[in-house]
């Protein structure tokens, strides 16, 4: 069973021997706001998520745990021809440096995560 973002935040905080107060000060938010993130009552903004990735030295993809769902999707893919726009996106992606490719993947993981929470 996949953990929630809040559960992952709590695990990361505990693994780094930090209190909610310490994390909230680092993020420049109220402790209660941070508590809402850990209890899945509120979704952190992209800015907060990025600051959390820096605090814990992890990628946004790792924080949002998109890898598990991505692997599941890859295993269930049916080949569909790409249209011209999609082919162009892939060419543009391949032209990027590995760092910028990771930025694109992090952004896509974030957008997918946010859109999944709205359903």
Automatic annotation (TrEMBL):
Which key words tag this protein in UniProt? DNA-binding
List the Pfam families hit by this protein, alphabetically: HTH_3
Task: Report whether Lipid biosynthesis shows up as a keyword of the record.
Answer: no
The UniProt record lists the HTH cro/C1-type domain at 9-63
Family matches, as PROSITE patterns: HTH_CROC1
Q: Name one GO molecular function term.
A: DNA binding
* InterPro entries in the record: Cro/C1-type_HTH (IPR001387), Lambda_DNA-bd_dom_sf (IPR010982)
Q: What is this protein called?
A: DNA-binding XRE family transcriptional regulator
Organism of origin is Murimonas intestini
**Which lineage ranks, top first, belong to the organism behind this chain?**
Bacteria, Bacillati, Bacillota, Clostridia, Lachnospirales
